[in-house]
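Annex B, item 7. Sequence and structure tokens for protein A, then protein B.
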Amino acid sequence: MFRKVFSVLIVLVLGLGLASAVHGDLTVGVKKGDWIEYAITTTGTPSEGHDINWSRMEVTDIQGTSIIVYITSRFINGSTANFNSTLNLKTGHLIDDFIIPANLKSGDTFLDEKVGKVTITNSEQHSYSGAMRTVLSAYTSQSTYIIWDQATGVSVEATSQLPDYSMHTIIEETNMWQTTQKLDMTSLLLISVAVIIAIIGTALLALRYRKKNRLIKK
């Protein structure tokens, strides 16, 4: 009985950890409800529509390798703009490479319909939004240097150099990973399950110890 309960709890913990969906050779690392917010700094004279100082992207649906996102942008003058967009990891329709396939590594490539294949040039550990993450980087068109979170494939930082202005984008907040300030519900659930497993394990050891002592006394 105890062994069956213990096995079920272990399966539950392992199942909760499987957040990515694999489609062929492409791994979608985000899920519905994931969101990320960015702070944006520009220097020079940005073109109309690019004079942005904040943006938020939320995943509203996943359909195979297609990722539907809702994007809110705030302009320097205080106005905002909202729009829906569909990214596709298979066709390379990534807009500004907001999201790429998850779990890539240095030397791997992904498709961007604007420029063709993009090669990941570097992998390192770096702190973003209060947590240490493994991040990937690459250069793309328009002298843009982008950094992505490896596990989710989302862009966490980017620097673009254009003729009249430069733009730096960096993550402010996200609900996609645990930070030092706040635990998400999945993390709390995993911790709770781990505590339950530890309690059951301790109870089993105590029960065996009592049985062993009774046999010795007899």
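Protein B:
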Amino acid sequence: MEDNTSVPRRALVLGPGEGTIVAGSGGTPVVIKIRGQDVTSGGYSFMEMDVAPGPGARPHIHHEADEAFYVVDGELTVVMDGESVVAPTGSFVLVPRGTRHTFRNQGARMAKAVFILSPPGFERFFEELAALRQASPTGQVDFATMAEVGQKFATEFFES
């Protein structure tokens, strides 16, 4: 019997800006293009993220997923296990599961990157965080709440 678990169930084309749009942990848009359960038979998720100039993502570890990202526009500074690298437009970064990492945009304009996580699931972190922000009277979520949501998706966040 042939194993079809890795075969997509249907073809899919999404145009610019199409997908599920939610606010990322920094408040800029995250476009979830593919959830793991959508068409990839649980293989990966694919997201597009605008990264504003500033402090960037909180340091974190994905304990059960590898994360890859490709810088589409701009430049990101990526810190993995304490080592800092600059990733300009066209750069590919692979962060193996279990690696403490963060990224930030040190430039003066918005950067854009696409993120692939395998296995998928972390895309739901952004959806849950967005729902909590909408329910909050301030539109914000504190670090403890963000970290608690992260734990649901096998991701550990650090304050610094």
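Comment on protein B: The chain has one domain: 21-137+144-157.
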